[in-house]
Structures are given as C-alpha cells and as structure tokens.
Structure prediction request, 248 residues.
Amino acid sequence: MRPTKQIYNNYTELDFLVWQTLFERQIKILKPIVSSAYLEALETVQFSSDKIPHFDEVAELLKPLTGWSMEVVPNISPQKTFFEFLSQKKFTATCWLRTMEQLDYLEEPDMFHDVFAHVPLLSNQTYVDFFKGISNIALKHIDNPKAIELLGRIYWFTIEFGLIKENDELKIYGAGIISSMGETKHCLSAQAIHLNFDVQTIFNTDFRTDILQVKYFVIESFQQLFDSLEEIEKLIEVSINNEQLKLH
Prediction:
C-alpha cells in the first residue's frame, strides 16, 4: 500500500540517497535550459539535494505567496478528485520515492515527479491562477468525457510538457520534462517539433504517455496561459454543442 500521509521519520537513508541522486543529476542538466521562473521558484520553496521536502514546511512557505498546499495521495487520483483538490488550491502529490533501480524509468509518478517538478511553480501566482482556472472548467464539465479529454490535452501540453520562450530562447517549464532526464535532453533537440501555443491546435493534437514526446507547444509567458482560459472554455462549449448536434 502506498502511503496516504507523509510521515517524515519513515524516510530511510536510501530514500535520501535516491532524492539526492535524482536532484543533483537533474538540476545539472536543467540549469542552462529550464525556465528562470522555475529556478527562482526552486529557491522560494527551499528545495535542496540533501533534504527530502517536508510537505508541511513547504505549505507554510507557499501560504503567504499563493495559498497553495499539497494533498497526499497514494497514486494517480481519479479525474474528479484531482480537479476538486486543485479547485481548493491543493495539488495532489505522492510522498513515496522510487528505488535506486528505478532511477531512469518509473511507470507511475513518485514524489520526485510530483514534488521536484510540479511544486516549485505553485509559488508563481500567474501559473497557479491558470492551474486553478483549468480545474474550474473541468469541474463544470466533469461528466462530459469530450470536455475532459480536451482539457487533458491542454494540461498535457502545458503543465506537463510545456516550453516557454525567454529572451528569444526556448526554456522548459513542464513538469513531465523537468523530472525526466530523457525528456529534458530530447525536448529542445532537432528531433522535437516546436509549435506556438494555440488552443485549437492543442485540442486537435493527440499524445502518447509511453514515449518521448514528438510535439511541444511554446508559450510567451504564464500570462498568456492565464489569458487563454476564456478561449479554452469557449471552444470546449462549442465542441460539446457540436457533439450534441451529432446525436440528434
């Protein structure tokens, strides 16, 4: 059974070694190519290689900034649960770590992905405003599979695998890239396809979870993401209406 509460004293020396190994090797690759917003956020939440983050301490740091915190879950949450917590400014995160044998690949997300990759940017107000906006739209249409599918694509190509332009250079901000050595090396390479952020194009783009990504969408700023929420909701409603017309 995966833990449903972070009991800090339960972490072993091996857990600390896994965290340290993952942190040190990933940050070395990331520093030149990750978004400056992420690096600043990493300092804000006081993450380091020699200490596994304590969820309560991180929440205290986030509280005066954005009011966000973490909700411990044993594994990936059902969609409704996930979006309900997001709407309450709670990011669902696992608190268990992979083993040394699983450093390079893990089928399900552990806390290195959830916490190292996702949590720092919870200190960025514009970023979390977009995050919460997505959850609000999702809850409004939670019983409509088409709407949730489209929102899933937005989430995938932004929160998980998004790129951002900084000083005319492509940088990484998506958590799925940040926590993956392979994805980090691949996403800015000549093999990757880079597209300007466009809601309709994302809605029309499939993805696979079991391979390195083929396409990455590039934003100009987190403000652009937040400003896209109105268009996202509008296009989802158009899609729902079109689906209903097909049924009649």
Notes: Strands lie at 69-72, 90-93, 163-166, 169-172, 193-196, 215-219. Residues 73 and 138 are 20 Å apart (CA to CA). The chain has a mean pLDDT of 94.
